[in-house]
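Posted in: Structural Biology > Protein-Ligand Complexes

Title: Requesting predicted complex, protoporphyrin IX containing FE in pocket

I'd be grateful if someone could produce the C-alpha cells for the following input. Sequence and ligand are given below.
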Amino acid sequence: MTDKPTLTTTGGAPVPDNQNSLTAGPRGPVLMQDYQLIEKLAHQNRERIAERVVHAKGWGAHGTLTIENDISKYTKAKVLQPGTKTEMIARFSTVAGEAGAADAERDVRGFSLKFYTEEGNWDLVGNNTPVFFVRDAYKFPDFIHTQKRHPKTNLRSPTAMWDFWSLSPESLHQVTILFSDRGLPVGVRNMNGYGSHTYSLINDNNERFWVKFHFKTQQGHQHWTNAEAEQVIGKTRESTQEDLFYAIEKGDFPKWNMQIQVMPETDADLTPYNPFDLTKVWPHGDYPLIDVGTLELNRNPENYFAEIEQAAFSPSNKVPGIGFSPDKMLQARVFSYADAHRHRIGTHYESLPVNEPKCPVHHYHKDGAMHFKSNGCPVDAYYEPNSFNGPVEKPDVAEPPLKITGDAARYDHREGNDDYSQPRALFNLFDDGQKSRLFSNIAAAMQGVPEEIVERQLKHFELVDPAYAAGVRTALNAS
Ligand code: NDP
Ligand code: HEM
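-- Reply #1 --
Done. Output follows.
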C-alpha cells in the first residue's frame, strides 16, 4: 500500500509502467502503440521555448510595493496612493548573453517589475542604469547586433562594439557607466533600478507631470572588478541566481527605496537638454528625488520556468494615472515587447498565471492558439457595440490631450545635441581609484580593436575630459 498519488498520462489515465517500454519480446523492437513513450519523448522535444532576443539570462522573485508617502498631487494611480501595498514580480537580467551565460559578466542589468494593481498590470521595464546607449529606436537592432555574436566567427566582437559606439557619440554616457564599477554588480540585490525613460503622471484634476522612476538599493552598492569576476566565474556561472535565491530563502529580503523625480509639463520646453532623451538624466539639483515607498522581494518562484521564463513584461502595460511620454525609444518599446511575447510565448501569453492581471479582465479578442480562458464577456457579447451587456469603455480614464507641434520629418538626433556634459558630470564623481578602473576596464575591452576605431573613440573621451582620454591611452599602452 502507498499513499503516493498515481502517475497518469496528461489525459489523466493511470500509467501501468514508467520503467519499461512496450516491446515485442524482451529485446525489442518497440511497439508504436507505446503512446506513453512517444508522449514523453515528444514533450521533451518541446521543453524549450525561444529565448528572449535580448536579456535572455535572468533571475527573479515575487514581492510587494508599499507606498509610504503621499504623491497624490501628481498621480491618481491607485497603486501609488499612500498606504497601498501591491503584489509584484521582478525579473533581472543581463542583456547580451544567452540563457546559459555566466552571471558575473560586465553588462547592463535589466530591472523589470510587474505590479498586479487593482486597475490592471503596470510594468516598469527598466535597467540598472538611468540612461541608454541610443536615443532613437531605429538604431536599437544595430546596437544589439554589435552585442551579439559575429556571423562568421560566432564570437562576440569588440571591433563591432567600439566601431558602433565610436560612430554613435550618444552612447558615451552609458558606455562610461558600463565600464565603471557599476557595470559589474555582484548581484541584483546590490544595484539600483531605474525606469530610465521619462514617463508621465496624471492627477485627479487631469494635470500631467513628467516623471522618472528610481529604485535605490538598501543593500548598498557592491561590484566586482574584472579580475574578481574571472575568479567568480571559475567557481560558479550562477552567482546572481545563488545570491538572490538563497537571500530570499533565508528571509533576508532585498529592498529598494522607490523615488521619483517630477517635472511640471510645461518645463519640458525650458530645460537645456531634451527631457525625453534617453541618453540624458535629469540632474538631481534641478529635479530632486521624492521618496515614494519601498519595494521588497520576499518570495522565490515555485517553478522558475512558469513564473520567470514565461513572465512577459511590456512598457505598454500602464494604468490610469501613469502614461507614456514623447521619448522615441519608449514609443518603440510600447510596440516591441507585446510583439516579442506573441512570438516567444504565444497569442494568449497574458492569460498565463504569472502574467494574468489580478483584477477583472473583459475584452473582445477571440480564439487563437491556446485559448484557455474566458475573455470575461457574456456569451452573446462577442462584438462591440452590442445589446447583451458586454463591457464598455470608461471615458474618465482618458489622458488629457498632449500638445504636439512640428513637421513630420526624419530629424537628425545628433545635431546640436550635447553628448559630453553629462558623461563629464559622471566622470567628475569618480575618485582616482574609480577612474583608474574605468580606464583599465575600457582598455581591456578594446583589445584587438583596429587602431582607427580606438582613436575615434579616444576623441570622444577627450571631449568629455582630456584626463579621460589620457587615462585610457595610458591603460592601452600598458596592456
Ligand atoms: P548627483 O551628485 O546628485 O547624483 C549622482 C548620481 O550618480 C547618484 O544618483 C549616484 O547614485 C550616481 N552614481 C554614483 N556613482 C555612479 C556610477 N559609477 N555609475 C552610475 N551612477 C553613479 O548628480 P546629478 O544628478 O547632477 O548627476 C550627475 C551624474 O550622475 C549624471 O550625469 C549621471 O551620469 C549620474 N547619475 C545621475 C542620476 C540622476 O537621475 N540625476 C542617476 C544616476 C546617475 P547613488 O545615489 O545610488 O549612489
Ligand atoms: C527585453 C526590445 C530598449 C530593458 C527586450 C526584448 C525585446 C526588447 C524585444 C525581449 C522581450 C521578451 O522576449 O520577453 C527593445 C527595444 C528597445 C529596447 C526595441 C529600444 C527601442 C530597452 C531599454 C531598456 C530595456 C531602453 C531599459 C531602460 C529591457 C529589459 C528586458 C528587455 C529589462 C527584459 C525583460 C524581462 O525581464 O523579461 N527588449 N528594448 N530595453 N528590455 Fe528592451
